[in-house]
Amino acid sequence: MRFSLKKEDLIPELHLFQGIVEKRNTMPILANILLDVYEDRVDMTGTDLEVGLKTYSPAKGEEKGSITISGKKIFEIVKSLPEGKPIIFSEENDLVMRITSGETEFKVLCLPKEDYPQMPESKFEKNIVIPLDVLQDMIESVYFAITQEHRYYLNGALLILKDGKLEMVSTDGHRLAYVSKSLENTSWGEEIRVIVSKKTLNELRKFEDESLEFDLDESNLFFRIKNRTMVSRIIEGKFPNFEAVLPKDNPYKASISREAITDSIRRVSLLSTERSRGIKLSIEKNLIRLFSSNPEMGEARDNISLDYSGKEMEIGFNSQYILDFLTTVKSEKVVFEFKDKDSAVLMRPESEEGMKYNYVLMPMKL
Amino acid sequence: MEKEQFIVHVDMDAFFASIEQRDHPEHQGKPVIVGADPQEGRGRGVVSACSYEARKFGIHSALPISTAYKLCPQAIFLPVDMKKYIHVSRQVFQILETFTPDIEPISIDEAFLDISHSFHLFGTPVETCRKIKKAVKEGTGLNASLGLAPNMMTAKIASDLEKPDGFVVVTQAGLQDFLFPLPVEKLWGIGRKTREVLKPLGISTVGDLARLDASVLIKLLGKHGDHIRKLANGIDPREVVPSLETKSIGNEHTFNSDISDRQLLLDTLMALSENVSRRMRKKGLKGKTVTLKIRFEDFTTYTRSVTLPFPTNFIEDIYGRAAEKCQTFDINRSPVRLIGVQVSNLADSEEQPSLFHDSTGKNGKREKLHEALDIIKDKFGDRAILHRRKPPE
User: Fold this and answer.
1) Cis before residue B31, ω within 30 degrees of 0?
2) Domains along chain B?
3) Radius of gyration of chain A (CA)
4) What's the whole-model pTM score?
5) What is the C-alpha separation between A143 and A177, in angstroms, rounded?
6) Count of Cβ atoms closer than 10 Å to residue B14 Cβ
7) Are B341 and B322 in contact (CB under 8 A)?
8) Are strands A96-101 and A104-109 parallel, antiparallel or unpaired?
9) What is the pLDDT of residue B223?
């Protein structure tokens, strides 16, 4: 095999593989990417068997062929070479790739393509097209509440495609983030509910384009953006019944300046215990008192004013959990909807701007 | 060549008695005995600790209190104030922690420190030890005896040599000169039985043992023979294993003789897990990380941890995880000397309730079951209701 191409055509593609190829040494070939050389392009495939990516770069293919090479090393090598000069890849003898550019030469040991796992493929016949910026905003809104743990069905976010509506949900059992967006002119047929892994969502954050095509089969999800197709194994299992925990009629609503409450929680949480990060909110007429104490350190207090005329109550929270929400949401004011000190609180941006965003948080017992 | 190790053994001098003498200046310079009530010679308990003045009368810990009373009726007899001693012990460990994080506590008043990686912050290893002694004295008013050596065994022997208020340094170069003249029973793992085997060979000092042909020892004592010969030559395979976190609850057991019976090992682990589980519930704590500690006959020690997604104090979680880790060791190859289990990464159990009502929550079925079990045990004793281990599949 022999081909040549330009550094700037290859780097963006190789960069994408860095998050995908296997870093642990469980199966050495999974640290590699598969190169398939054609006349006018080189196809690249990488996978860790959970998430895979297939893409291509324009190239001058002088001799067709296929081989697998370390995804990390080829990226580092190409990155180190100067711009402007063509980079020539040629298979020296069996399983040795010679990479040259000007006076520079590398010889890299490769593994045969026969050992590389087959990637599932899709023809994208369902014609599902999702605006990429919408999807990325939704991922941003739920990403922080995804956990990595043995309840594998929580290691991703639930994605729901209904006619005219896209929804996404994540939870770690203590808090839940829900986001939905109405999309006009969509007819996707049957409702789709799938759990998308955290790693896939993270990769999707990195793409740039107007829209992506989506498809799925029994065990895989497919996302296509221009020359790139991502394949992600569906996380099996039953996502918790989130509809049941979204508070429907919390009677007491407090509208608060996001900046004021964020700063105040940051200050007061300095003296919360490291274990629980617990702070107490006392809500009174037009006033919230924030308080934290740590038997080994001391205590902190702060007050902020707001519009509130509901019931007075004292309620404890993990401060980090509230900050996760406050630093993700962008609106100037946020609304907290309470019921009592033991019931889940609903937090949301005051202005919805076309996207409904609900954050549900269980209070702590302080 | 491996980098030289600097291991310190810190041993508080007559810990309980010294604390009492510190707090009661009128007892200073007098024989103080901490332990059971002597009841004028009729008491049935034992001596927990005694001051150096009392030791001159032949009194030592674990002696029946009645004997102690006979030997020295004029001594000051005091009850054990464990709460106070634990408090002081914490202070001591807090001081030690300012010198290195690599601390393996042995008991309430004794610990190994590996200062190989931190001594340069305080000067030389010897200067570091002097600073440790001084810091303990200034922080608690108590004396500690220190041994500094290239390995744990030698450090422990050294700390004992010039007690009280002692400090003995053994360098790598001086290791053999230090060890060889010592009586052979000073080595770890040489008890009565081994001594009986060695005696006919004319071995009475560590040097005699070190010079003995390895094959003779292995023939007589098997693997243990090889181990003690290495110790005699100043080769100690043990490493300072830091206690994982001070904020943890654990329990461990040293077997009377090393065992390779998996059944017995798991039964012991079950009993230890039970103890840990109940103590955690009594304190209202849950933890996420379960750690198994296992020490083999040659004193090599391993810890294996697993972190759960949620904090627990249920015995089935603690035992289950620890037993899984235990299965990864081949105990037929090397018998087990000690086994322990510990839960760390602690949280107060009530803290953060779950959004979804599952059985691990406050009002879950498992929670109620364990509360009921605790009540039964508190009322009718620990053996009133027992766990049965799942038979191997």
Assistant:
1) no
2) 16-82 (3.40.1170.60), 177-232 (1.10.150.20), 248-384 (3.30.1490.100)
3) 25
4) 0.57
5) 9
6) 24
7) yes
8) antiparallel
9) 79
A175 lies within 8 A of chain B by CB: yes
A273: its two tokens = 């215990």
Q: B92 in contact with A at a CB cutoff of 8 Å?
A: no
What pLDDT does residue B243 have?
A: 55
**Is the CB of B90 inside 8 Å of chain A's CB atoms?**
no
| Phi, psi for B389 (deg, rounded to 5) | -75, 140
Find where tokens 């009133």 sit. B384
Is A155 in CB contact (< 8 Å) with chain B? Answer: no
- As to burial, measured by CB atoms within 10 angstroms (0-12 exposed, 13-18 middle, 19+ buried), residue B97 is middle
Residues of chain B with pLDDT under 70: 1-2, 243-247, 348-351, 357-364, 389-393
Give residue B144's identity as a one-letter amino acid code. A
Which has the closest alpha carbon to B21: B92, B84, B93? B84
The tens digit of pLDDT for each residue in A83-110 reads 889 999 999 888 899 999 999 999 999 9
Distance between B349 CA and the closest CA of chain A, angstroms: 10
**Which residues in chain A have their CB less than 8 angstroms from residue B354's CB?**
173-174, 362
Both tokens assigned to B88? 């002081």
Distance CA B19, CA B32 (A): 11
Whether A362 sits inside 8 A of B354 (CB atoms) is yes
Q: What residues in B contact A360, CB-CB < 8 Å? A: 355
Name the residue with tokens 């309840």. Answer: A151
**Cα dihedral sign for B299, B305, B311, B315?**
negative
Nearest CA to CA, how far is B311 from chain A (Å)?
12
Supply the pLDDT for residue B351.
65
What angle is formed at CA B304 by the lines to CA B299 and CA B307, rounded to 5 degrees?
160
Task: Let me know if B316 is a catalytic residue.
Answer: no
The reply to whether B59 touches chain A by the CB within 8 Å rule is no
Rounded distance between C-alpha atoms, residue A365 and residue B301, angstroms: 40
Shortest CA distance from A177: residue in chain B? B355
As a whole number of angstroms, the distance between CA B338 and CA B295 comes to 5
**Across the beta sheet with A175-182, what order do the strands follow?**
A192-197, A156-162, A165-171, A175-182, A355-361, A345-349, A333-338, A252-257
Q: Do A276 and B351 touch (CB under 8 A)?
A: yes
Compare all CA atoms of chain B with the CA of A360 and give the residue at the minimum distance.
B355
Longest dimension (CA), chain A: 80
Q: Tell me the backbone φ, ψ of residue B217, rounded to 5 degrees.
A: -65, -40
- Spatial CB neighbours of A262, under 8 Å, sequence gap ≥ 6: A323, A326, A327
CA B206 to mean position of chain CA atoms = 25
**B367 vs B203, B223, B281, B371, CA distance in Å?**
59, 47, 10, 6
The residues, any chain, with a CB within 8 Å of residue B330's CB and separated by 6 or more, are: none
Parts of chain A with a pLDDT under 70: 24-25, 150
Contact B65, B36 (CB under 8 A): yes
**CA end-to-end span of chain A, whole Å?**
67
**350-369 of B, contacting A, C-beta below 8 A:** 350-356
pLDDT of residue B244: 44
Residues in A touching B284 (Cβ below 8 Å): none
Query: For B45-101, how does the pLDDT look when each residue is reduced to its tens digit (9 = 90+)?
Result: 778 889 999 999 999 887 888 899 999 999 999 998 888 888 899 899 989 988 988
Strands lying side by side in the sheet with B144-149: B103-107, B110-114, B7-12, B144-149, B167-169
Structure tokens given for B118 = 């931190």
3-state class percentages of chain B: helix first, strand second, coil last, to nearest 5: 40, 20, 35
* CB contact A341 to B (< 8 Å): no
Distance from A62 to chain B by nearest Cα, in Å? 53
Instruction: State the Cα angle at B331 between B329 and B332, rounded to 5°.
Output: 130
Average pLDDT, chain A: 91
Residues with Cβ within 8 Å of B283's Cβ and at least 6 positions away in sequence, in order, are B249
